[in-house]
């Protein structure tokens, strides 16, 4: 809780002193995002790994601090305004790590950041190729490392499709991208499940699907 308060004070200072065009400090903002995501993903806050009694005790006393800092990261991202493009594709991995935390409200609040990144890069370069390449590379790594689940896949699909379909220029390319990532996620999750299967043919078939 002490660290959370310190990070929030740091965030206030960034908004007040280092956000406008004349004083913007890329490295400071970069440090903030990496620090906040490291805080959110640390082992001691992953409540689903604890017994129900311990989880209830922590929630009762502190609430879910991952959710608190996650909402703060989301707000800080949107505060960046025209500076957002400076954080693409570098911030795709950390934001992905955050959205993969198995907390539904946190996921719903932070998955839309991906659409914002697509929109931002598309506005700047007429495509979102850098974002797309980065998320596919990082997703492969994260799912193989044990993160991600069926609920995440469903939320990712639903939230991003809704956002893309409302957008004049991203409707078609956005929908193609979402379908691609969701089908990749499906194959990666299948592959992860079957990796320890005795049946070599099953493993090989899943590997072929991923490739």
UniProtKB/TrEMBL annotation:
What InterPro entries does the record tag this protein with? DOCK (IPR026791), TPR_DOCK (IPR056372)
Q: Which GO terms describe its molecular function?
A: guanyl-nucleotide exchange factor activity; small GTPase binding
Entry superkingdom: Eukaryota
Q: Which GO terms describe its cellular component?
A: cytoplasm; plasma membrane
What are the BP-aspect GO terms? Answer: cell migration; myoblast fusion; small GTPase-mediated signal transduction
The protein's matches in Pfam families, at most eight in alphabetical order, are given as: TPR_DOCK
Q: Which residues form the Dedicator of cytokinesis TPR repeats region domain?
A: 1-159
Designated name of the protein: DOCK1 protein
Q: Which organism is it from?
A: Brachypteracias leptosomus
Cite the source lineage: Eukaryota, Metazoa, Chordata, Craniata, Vertebrata
């Amino acid at each position: 809780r002490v660290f959370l308060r310190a990070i929030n004070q740091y965030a206030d200072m960034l908004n007040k002193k280092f956000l406008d065009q004349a004083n913007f400090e890329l490295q400071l903002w970069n440090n903030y995002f990496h620090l906040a995501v490291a805080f959110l993903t640390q082992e001691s806050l992953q409540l689903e790994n604890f017994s129900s009694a311990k989880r209830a005790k922590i929630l009762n006393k502190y609430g879910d601090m991952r959710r608190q800092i996650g909402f703060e990261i989301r707000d800080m991202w949107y505060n960046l305004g025209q500076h957002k493009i400076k954080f693409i594709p570098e911030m795709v991995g950390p934001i992905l790590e955050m959205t993969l935390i198995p907390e539904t409200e946190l996921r719903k609040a932070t998955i839309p950041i991906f659409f914002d990144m697509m929109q931002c890069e598309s506005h700047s370069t007429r495509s979102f190729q850098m974002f797309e390449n980065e998320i596919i590379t990082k997703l492969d790594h994260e799912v193989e490392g044990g993160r991600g689940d069926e609920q995440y896949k469903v939320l990712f699909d639903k939230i991003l499709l809704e956002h893309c379909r409302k957008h004049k220029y991203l409707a078609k390319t956005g929908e193609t991208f979402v379908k691609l990532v969701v089908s990749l996620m499906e194959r990666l999750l299948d592959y992860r499940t079957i990796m320890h299967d005795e049946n070599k043919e099953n493993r090989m078939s899943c590997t072929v699907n991923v490739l």
